[in-house]
Amino acid sequence: MLRTTTHLRALTPQDLPELHRLLDLDPLVNLFVRNRVDATKLQARWLGGQVWGYFEDGALVSACHAGANVVPVEATPAALEMFAEQILADNIRPSSIVGPRDTVLPFWKLLEPRWGPARSPRLAQPFMVLDRDSRIPPDPRVRPVLIDEFEAVYPACVAMFTEEVGVDPEATSRAGYRARVAQLISQGWSFAIIEDGEVIFKTEVGAATPQACQLQGVYVHPDLRGQGIAGPAIAGVVHLVRQTIAPIVTLYVNDHNTVARRAYERVGFEHTTTFASILL
C-alpha cells in the first residue's frame, strides 16, 4: 500500500491559485483569511505573519493563518498536529485562535499543555448569515462615519473592545489601534448613529470579499441599552453594506449573549455553523 506523503511550508504568492481554491470551499467561514490573502497577496511585508499550507501528495489540503490571530482553514486532524508543532517551534504567541468550533477545540487541546489556561475561552459562538435586506425597517440615522468624526467614534471603539475582549486596546498598542479605527473609517467600513457628537450606535465591517463581509464591534451606548436601538440600527447597516461592500453579511456572537443573539435573529440573521475563539 502506498503511503501518503505530507509536508508543511509557508505559502508564497505562487500558491495563490491553489489557496483560493481551498478558501472557496467555504467562502463565508473562510472570509477572514481570504480578506487577508486578497489584501496582501501573501507578501510577507504586508501579511504580518505567514500562511502555512499542509500538503498531501503535493496537493494543498489545509492552511493556517499564523499571525496576531491564528485561523485554521479546512484543517484536517493531521494538519492541526503539524500546525501546532510549527507554532510551538516558531514560538508564536498570538492574541487568539479563531475558527470553526470543530477545528479550534482540538487545535487548542494540542497547544494548551504548553501554553497553559486560556485567558478567555469562548467555546460556542453562533456564526450567523444574512443574504438579503432585513425584514424589519432600518433606522434611517445609520450612516458611514466620516473621517473628521474619528475623535467622536474612537472612545466607543475602545469601550466596545474592552467590554468584549476584556483588554484595553490602548494598553497594548494605542497607536496601532487608532490606526486601525482610522483605516476602517477611511475605507467606508465604519457605520454609526451619531447625535450631537454622541455615538448612539456603531459597528464596523472587519473583513470583506466580493462575496461577503463580516460585522464586528457592535455597540450601543450603555445609557440607551434595552430600548430596541440595536435591531433597526443593524438592519440599517445591513442595507448599506449590501449596497456598497458585499451582498452577504456575516457575524459571530458569544452563545451566552442572548440579548445580542435575539437582536440579530430579529434582523434576520440565521445560525449556520458554530465558531470558537480562544483568547490568550
As residue ranges, the low-confidence spans are: none
User: What string gives the helices and strands in order?
Assistant: EHHHEEEHEHEEHHEEEHEHE
State the helical fraction: 25-40%
The average pLDDT value, as a whole number, equals 95
Q: Please state the structural category.
A: alpha+beta
Number of helices: 9
Largest sheet: 12 strands, mixed
Percent range for β-strand residues? 25-35%
Global geometry: globular
Corresponding CATH architecture of the largest domain? 3-Layer(aba) Sandwich
Question: In a nutshell, what does this entry contain?
Answer:
One of its GO terms (molecular function) is acyltransferase activity. This protein is of the alpha+beta class.
Provide structural commentary:
The chain is an alpha+beta fold and 280 residues long. It has two domains: 6-117, Aminopeptidase (3-Layer(aba) Sandwich), CATH 3.40.630.30; 130-274, Aminopeptidase. The protein has helices at residues 16-23, 31-40, 44-47, 77-89, 101-115, 150-165, 169-187, 230-244, 258-267; strands at residues 6-10, 50-56, 59-66, 69-73, 96-100, 120-130, 143-144, 190-195, 198-208, 212-220, 248-252, 270-279. Strands 1-2-3-4-5-12-6-11-10-9-8-7 form a twelve-stranded mixed beta sheet, with helices on both faces. α6 packs across α7 (169-187). It is globular, with a radius of gyration of 19 Å. The protein starts with 5 loop residues before the first strand and ends with a strand. The model has no long low-confidence stretch (mean pLDDT 95). Residues 140-280 form the N-acetyltransferase domain. Its EC number is 2.3.1.-. It comes from Aeromicrobium wangtongii.
